[in-house]
Amino acid sequence: MRLRDVMRILDATVLTGEDKLDQEIEAACGCDLISDLLAFTRARMLVLTGLVTPQIIRAAEMMDLSAIVFVRGKKPTAEIVSMAKEAGIPVLCTSYPLYESAGLLFEAGLRGKCAWPGAVTSGADAVARASGREGGNAPAAGGDGGNAGDSERAARGGPRDAP
Known about the structure:
The protein contains 7 helices and 5 strands. By secondary structure, the protein is α/β, with parallel strands linked by helices. Helix 3 runs parallel beside helix 4. The chain is globular.
C-alpha cells in the first residue's frame, strides 16, 4: 500500500512529506508510548499515534520509520512539523481514533509486523492461535485451555463447563 492510499483511507491531511506519498508502506503499528515505539516497531513502518511531542519525531527518525499519522484529530505544533520535515518523515493527521484507523488500514490490506515474541501479525495468525493450531497463548493441540473435559464433552454433544 502506498502512503497516498493511507491518506485516502483515513481521510488524512498531509502536513509534511507530500513528495513521499508514493512510497510503499509495508506494515503499520499503533502506539501511544515512546517505549513501545522503540521496543516493538521496525524500520519502514507507518506509526499511528496520538502522542504529539517532539520525542515521537526523534524516535521515528532513530527507528527509520516510514511515516507518522497523528490520530484523534490531534495537531502537532509548527516545531514538531518542522522537525519531521527536517528529518524527512512524512506526517499526516486524521480525525479517526487509533483503533478505527488501524482497523480501516487492516481492512484495506495493510498488516502489522510487530517485533515482540509471539505477536499476532495477520488475521490468519489470530484464527490459528485462537483455534489452538499455532503456538502462543492458545492451548496446544489436544489441550483443554484449562477447562478439563470440555473437549471430550463437546465431542459427545454435551455442554461445556462455564468459564
